[in-house]
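**Backbone description:**
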Amino acid sequence: MARRATFRPPRLLQNRHLQTLCAAVPAYTPPRRLAGWPTQRMRFPIDGGALTAVAHLRERPERTVLLVHGIGGAADSKYVVRAAAAFWERGYDVVRLNLRGAGDSMTEMPSIYHAGLTHDLDVVVRTLATRPGKLYVVGFSGGGSLALKLAGEWADAPPEHVAAVAALSAPLDLTVVGPWLDGWGRRPYRFHVMRGLVRMARAFDRHWPDHAHFDLESLSRFGSVRHFDSTVVAPMHGFDSVDRYWGEASAGPFLAKVRVPAIFVHADDDPMVPGWTVRPWLAKAPACVDVAISERGGHLGWVSGASERDWVRSWPIERVLEAFDRA
């Protein structure tokens, strides 16, 4: 059952659009005091290719967190790097994943990820679960949806050592959110999403021309999410229509099957994934899923001030850290 959570932004940052914009501002990525943390590249073999990740690992790990970016993002997205800093500072080893077509994974896999491609995430989780200590998964926006869908698919049999899953600003029903983003009033957000997706499609065409079976010239930063998904994603992954893809990729129908401890953090005023799009599914969530919904916060925003702590140890990350401490 969803519970109202208290987040109090400063008076000048109460606007949902400003909160959302803050997620993309290149502030504290990463904090200077952590600039020397150990960094290495990880590779996860999958389907004849591989996914890549940026990893920050200690010699004797006790807890590892896997961070999964959102649609159009990558391991170096600002919100991912800030979260990495927060978890590293709390003693977690950190792995920042690049999904298919994102970051270095572009040159390793001849396809682009889709919103419900849990197979890849499952392989990565099961690989990391063999490391010492507990494993936690945190997904942002579309990455959060992917993590929750996978947790639902695990049902009563999650991988050993997986302690908890978290989703921030995650869409649960793409059949609703897709058309919502294509609406007239969401043009700035659609432009932001499409810019990342079109950039990814163009890079894919350069690296994998024999696999780019789509009309690149028809793709535009000013186009619709429906057009991109129907032109690129659905055909690439064998969906006969974009509506079928959105329906099958949505996490909402899997939420009731989640048995691993989880936390879902959302803002009612999210301009990209409004609270009303997630509440019908959250009403079916089992007791193991903690739901924290704030009145304000925007999409991956929740900025409460101008200090480094306000950005790195942000309100949703604090909620996740508290939940993980209990798991």
Summary: The chain has two domains: 3-173+251-326, 176-249. The chain has a mean pLDDT of 94. The two ends are 18 Å apart (CA to CA).
